[in-house]
Design brief:
heterodimer; A: mainly alpha; 72% helix; elongated; B: mainly alpha; Sodium/glucose cotransporter; 2 strands; 1% strand; globular
């Protein structure tokens, strides 16, 4: 395999840095919702309820909310990375 | 129609469908056999991944576990879905760009080492067989309970079906059968969930319904359940009993293990592009979330129904399902105080005078999902549907696991290690033969299950978390990571994790309580520590040993950008 002809080292480093930034933000949300809201702070959050329902908030995060947030995170990542790929000209459409 | 007639009809129809798909999607090359020709659409791959992932454990056991442990069951809900975020963000796109056929392929090539490849092959085979034994057992239980055939015959029928489409179609056959199996299993899971939600809360959406009003008592269902639990001496449903630290470590081990399981990872080799791999993980999690968000609702409905039906009721007035499940040994009643009434109570139950009340009823948590439609008096066809769904879940996962075993033998051991000059035709035959043999071994394990199937599941996740997950992550995110670091890291992680689990599960099971665990971490959660150990050992060792050769750092640079994914699958040719 050979390197793609248009791949300039400088731009590929910038691409990777940007990718790592996105990862850091998305992973922070991932950690905050599951390990934070669903586990570490579940008891304080359980003192609150989702209005109009019987769900204690922490319990809801652990058994419902975290899963919805996970789905949203993956689609956010797909959107951000597709945009980034096009910006740096490393997307697969030109192939 | 009777329950049995419905079950025969629905199971028969679904099996006919799987066989039809298998004939239509035969594999003609190793690329089709291993990765379905890398031509699967992201949506189809998402469905196939969901079916591959959701096993007999997800379908049959999970809601039951949550039903009996309340908040503590959240470790499975978050652990088995949060792992997909790791998979999407940290693994799938890069592995697709790398373009291998198997997980040991990546480990062996990235770390330019046959030792690393062999360590990975052994882990992949061990993890997959561990898992598959449970699937075959699940098939046997469903057959014996719903169709009244012996467990052995049930396992044989299941083996026959899997043999047919796995050996004939390889990954291609498996993928399209899994798409069909996903549809069957999700329909079979949601129909009773919706029925129950309507019956109990009047809300058609179970995910919302279990936070709603209990129509019988006029209070919130969760409050009602917490009250019942307190009265009967169980821990509050929405709080649970496990320590926060243990919950944390178990969730982390399940997440990293999910992301490191070979049969899940290889699904993302089957899509055409890197972009498709990312999107496909998203679809997969949507399809998985449909079941995983319904499971805690089913758990609450089932728990309430169960307590209302059995607690303090005369044994002689129990409904018919009670005695059918008693015959299977999954429910047992022992009238300790001889009053003919069922006392189903928790460890903190006290009578009016403050004396402890003894529990008289033992219920296997696995029957919750299977017996739920009967307990709630749902129509017969729903019961038959649940049986077909449970079989779809077990068979789809078994097939995915068997493919990992077969490709580990024919591709990693033969083609890449011991017989590199094997022809394409020869490799395809070897792949089929090893798939066939793997089905045989799996069937044997299903009929003669080692007594420790439940225990070794902790192994599968712990080992995947402590071996593959760190090795792959560092292979992508650290250019400096070298052969020495990765191999010693994997060995340290596996040895530590395996030793801890073996000690507490087999050598000294009586000490398997929180007071003897290291830092209060249970064997289920120890994979997280093994993973951290792997990372630490690998990072330290790699600093004191030679850096990887230039062609490896080039390889890492290449897998970090999507362009050029079409060239993949050529590296390992």
């Amino acid at each position: 395999m050979t390197l793609p002809p248009d791949r300039r080292p400088a731009s590929s480093e910038a691409y990777w840095r940007k990718n790592l930034q996105y990862l850091a933000i998305l992973m922070a949300v991932w950690f905050g919702i599951s390990y934070g809201a669903g586990i570490l702070f579940v008891e304080p959050l359980n003192r609150f309820r989702i209005p109009g329902t019987g769900f204690p908030l922490g319990f809801w995060f652990a058994q419902q909310g975290a899963i919805y947030v996970f789905v949203a995170l993956i689609f956010a990542y797909v959107y951000l990375m597709n945009r980034l790929d096009r910006e740096f000209g490393v997307d697969e459409d030109a192939e | 129609m009777t329950v049995q007639a419905w079950t025969f009809t629905l199971v028969g129809l679904s099996f006919a469908l799987y066989i039809g798909i298998a004939v239509w999607s035969r594999a003609h090359s190793t690329k089709e056999f291993y990765v379905a020709g890398a031509g699967v659409s992201p949506l189809a791959n998402g469905m196939a991944t969901a079916a591959d992932w959701m096993s007999a454990a997800s379908f049959i056991s999970m809601a039951g576990i949550i039903s009996f442990s309340g908040y503590d069951g959240s470790v499975y809900l978050m652990g088995w879905t949060g792992g997909y975020v790791l998979l999407a963000l940290l693994l799938a796109p890069y592995l697709r760009k790398f373009g291998a056929y198997t997980v040991p392929d990546f480990v062996g090539d990235r770390y330019y080492s046959q030792t690393a490849r062999i360590v990975a092959v052994v882990c992949a085979i061990f993890v997959s067989f561990t898992y598959v034994a449970g699937q075959m057992r699940g098939v046997g239980i469903v057959f014996s309970r719903f169709l009244e055939v012996p467990i052995e015959l049930g396992v044989l029928i299941g083996m026959g079906i899997v043999f047919f489409y796995a050996v004939l179609g390889g990954m291609k056959g498996i993928t399209y059968t899994q798409v069909a199996q996903y549809c069957v299993l999700i329909f079979a899971y949601l129909v009773p969930a919706i029925f129950l939600s309507l019956l109990i809360t009047g809300n058609v959406i179970p995910q919302i319904g279990f936070g709603g009003m209990d129509q019988a008592s006029g209070t919130f269902l969760l409050d009602r359940l917490n009250d019942l639990h307190r009265d009967l001496g169980f821990a509050a449903y929405t709080s649970g009993e496990k320590s926060t630290r243990d919950i944390f470590f178990i969730t982390a081990a399940l997440m990293a293990g999910t992301a490191g399981l070979p049969h899940v990872i290889i699904r993302f080799y089957t899509v055409p592009k890197v972009r498709d791999a990312r999107l496909s993980v998203g679809y997969a999690l949507v399809f998985i979330a449909l079941l995983y968000t319904a499971a805690p609702a089913v758990a609450v409905f089932a728990r309430t129904n169960l307590l209302n039906t059995v607690s303090e009721q005369p044994y002689s007035e129990m409904p018919e399902w009670f005695s059918t499940w008693e015959e299977t040994g999954l429910i047992s009643f022992d009238d300790l105080n001889g009053d003919g009434i069922i006392q189903y109570v928790g460890p903190r139950a006290r009578d009016a005078a403050g004396a402890p009340i003894e529990n008289e009823l033992t219920i296997d948590r696995d029957i919750i999902v299977l017996a739920n439609p009967e307990i709630s008096g749902l129509p017969n066809w729903v019961i038959g549907l649940v049986a077909a769904g449970a079989l779809a879940a077990a068979l789809s996962t078994a097939a995915g696991l068997l493919l990992v075993v077969s490709s580990a033998v024919s591709h990693d051991l033969l083609k890449r290690s011991f017989k590199p000059d094997i022809t394409e035709r020869g490799e395809l035959i070897a792949a089929r033969v090893s798939a066939g043999l793997a089905v045989g071994v799996a069937g044997y394990l299903g009929i003669n299950p080692p007594g420790f199937v439940a225990e070794v599941v902790a192994f599968a996740f712990g080992l995947a978390a402590a071996s593959f997950f760190p090795a792959i992550i560092m292979g992508i995110f650290s250019k400096r990571m070298n052969r020495e670091g990765a191999v010693l890291g994997m060995i340290a992680g596996i040895t530590f994790t395996a030793a801890y689990i073996v000690y507490f599960k087999f050598i000294n099971p009586s000490a398997n309580t929180a007071e003897y665990w290291w830092f209060g971490i249970s064997p289920e959660g120890i994979g997280t520590v093994g993973m951290m150990l792997n990372f630490a050992v690998a990072l330290i060792v790699s600093r004191f040993t030679p850096p990887p050769p230039a062609h490896i750092t080039d390889l890492v640079e290449r897998i970090r950008v999507p362009r050029g994914s079409g060239e993949g699958h050529g590296i390992s040719g």
